[in-house]
Write a structure and sequence with these properties.
Number of domains: 1
Structural class: alpha/beta
CATH architecture: 3-Layer(aba) Sandwich
Strand content: 5-15%
Bound molecules: zinc ion
Radius of gyration: 19 Å
CATH topology: Arginase, Chain A
Number of strands: 8
Shape: globular
CATH superfamily: Histone deacetylase domain
Length: about 350
């Protein structure tokens, strides 16, 4: 991999709190930043620390309804009121909290800075770990996500006439991004995730393939619980490179949630840093400009090690063994057979539903 790699950083991206007991802890990003700093990553020749900016109202409204944005502005100032019609609930997945609009403008703007640096050619790739909030819908907060920064980035790139390949490797289905581009062929969405039969948001089956001009341009690979590195790498290699090469995008946008990790408390996939190294190396091996975002990730040490490793891969720097899982889970016997056959089936269904 060659060319410079941006890392969007400001401690303010890691300072908001959804709720004290909430699993999404933005301060997890400090561990990534501090690990990379300790390893000397930001002193590498290609490293670029990028400062985020606030997204504008017009950028947010590329994807979200103005009335929804008004509701978030109000919830941000007065979080004690009832915003349930907008998907917010005090004890639910996505609570209203003081300052949520401002925090979300900054995380979204951080993804937009990553996009701008990549499209200008100043860097080959840029990573915003605070972004990747892929569940937010046009008029509804969902699954810890308020403004859908990956959809906003893809939409703005599509508006500039670019063909966008969006690849979502979070454990959860990238439902909000899929919904935003369900009827267009200008954004190809590919989501590899734990099946909706066992995990939120309950969608992401192969037959959700897009509609109208978008038919065949929403791709879903619904993986069984307990998918391990071996099955995942096989599924990824069979589905993603062929589809992306067939599509010939102008730009790659990736959502790199690491709640797929075997230590993650919220999901049932069993990936390690090794499968992720394989996948992120492939992203880097493509010829496309690449906008990279974070996403889920609720085991803080898995987040710290994996995203640190992934930024080092973007830099083309060596990976210290301390970042890798030493003993990743590996299925055997009848569990091996069952997971392999279910992942192969998921890939067959996804490819059969894809554009040709
Ligand atoms: Zn997730």
């Amino acid at each position: 991999m060659s060319g410079a790699a941006g890392f969007v950083w400001d401690p303010r991206l890691a300072s908001h709190v959804y709720r004290e007991d909430h699993p999404l802890k933005p301060w997890r990003l400090r561990g990534v930043h501090d690990t990379l700093e300790r390893l000397g990553a930001f002193a590498q020749p290609g490293a670029r620390l990028l400062a985020p900016r606030d997204a504008t109202r017009a950028e947010i409204e590329r994807v979200h309804d103005p009335a929804y944005v008004d509701a978030i502005v109000q919830a941000s100032a007065r979080p004690g009121l009832d915003y349930s019609e907008w998907g917010l609930a005090k004890w639910g997945d996505t609570p209203p909290f003081q300052g949520m609009h401002e925090a979300s403008l900054l995380t979204t703007g951080a993804s937009l800075v990553a996009m701008e640096e990549v499209i200008s050619g100043r860097v080959r790739v840029a990573f915003n770990g605070s972004g990747g909030l892929h569940h937010a819908m046009r008029r509804r907060a969902s699954g810890f996500c308020i403004y859908n920064d990956p959809a906003i980035v893809c939409g703005i790139l599509a508006d500039r006439g670019m063909r966008v390949a969006y690849i979502d490797i979070d454990a959860h289905h990238g439902d909000g991004v899929q919904a935003a581009f369900y009827e267009t062929d200008q954004v190809l969405t590919i989501s590899l995730h734990e099946t909706g039969r066992t995990l939120f948001p309950g969608t992401g089956f192969a037959d959700e393939r897009g509609a109208g001009k978008g038919a065949g341009y929403s791709i879903n690979v619904a993986l069984p619980p307990y998918t391990d590195d071996s099955a995942y790498v096989r599924a990824f290699d069979a589905a993603v490179p062929p589809l992306v090469e067939r599509y010939r995008p102008d730009v790659l946008v990736t959502q790199q949630g690491i709640d797929t990790h075997f230590a993650d408390p919220l999901t049932h996939l069993q990936l390690s840093t090794h499968a992720r190294q394989h996948v992120v190396r492939w992203f880097g091996s493509t010829p496309y400009p690449w906008v990279a975002m974070g996403g889920g990730g609720y085991d803080l040490d898995a987040v710290r090690r994996t995203w640190s490793m992934e930024y080092l891969l973007m830099l083309g720097a060596p990976i210290p063994p301390e970042l890798h899982d030493q003993h990743p889970p590996l299925l055997s016997g009848s569990n091996r057979t069952a997971v392999d056959s279910a992942t192969d089936q998921a890939v067959r269904e996804a490819l059969a539903a894809a554009f040709s």
